[in-house]
Amino acid sequence: MDIIIKENYEQMGKYAAKIIASYVKSKPNCVLGLATGGTPISTYRELVRMHREEGLDFSQVKTFNLDEYLGIGIDLNKPYDMDQSYARFMHEELLNHINIKKENVYIPDGLTKDPEKYCQWYEEEIKKAGGIDLQLLGLGCDGHWGFNEPGSSLASRTRVQVLTKQTLDDNYEAFYKKANIERSQMPHFAITMGIGTILEAKNILMIVNGAKKADVVAKCLEGPVTSQITASAIQLHSGNITVVLDEEAASKLQ
Length: 254
Ligand code: F6R
Hints:
Helix content is 31%, strand content 17%. Helix 1 packs across helix 2. By secondary structure, it is an alpha/beta fold. It has one domain: 3-Layer(aba) Sandwich (Rossmann fold). The protein is built from 7 helices and 10 strands.
């Protein structure tokens, strides 16, 4: 496992984008696993810059997002309002600004009428695509990957998950409050790739920033592997793992 410590959030994002770009250049039809949240914004900004200024080509790339709130989503063919779907986030932060093909973008459908069947379909699509070459991950304050909250099986697959109070609080502060959405209106369920699904990615790139994640970073990378910190499963992965941290997030590592 390579652990890279960069000075700040912007530098973390630039470094992570460089890693993603090198996969895209070496395998133009690669399959990327993508994350949402505050953490990857600087990474996506840099990828957009590389596309615009350096011609980084996404025309053959396929992407699978980790998760989506259940009960919300967007029809991209219609005007959309202030919903906080991850589909909307991905289009605004990255997908609308690069030359990726619509049919190559997979984001769990939060509006599905049959979540169980949908989750199985999502797993099958990942397999049909040949598996994920590089999975980008953030880290939740409670140690989650995707929405695999504490107690999720480390062998779990794509499924519906109930969100914990901590995740609801974190995501309310980061996104919903700014959009003037009442906390009680937040979705409490999500579709998420499982930890077992994530561990099948050939390569893993985890990015984490900020002092508030320093404790959980140390537990995840240096503590025991436990379903109480589902991202500690990173220690079980046998492919290439790169963890890019800013100095604050790295401050409690031994
Ligand atoms: C989002 C996701 C989550 C986030 C995590 C950190 O797709 O999978 O696990 O990576 O909650 O969120 P931020 O980056 O907002 O701190």
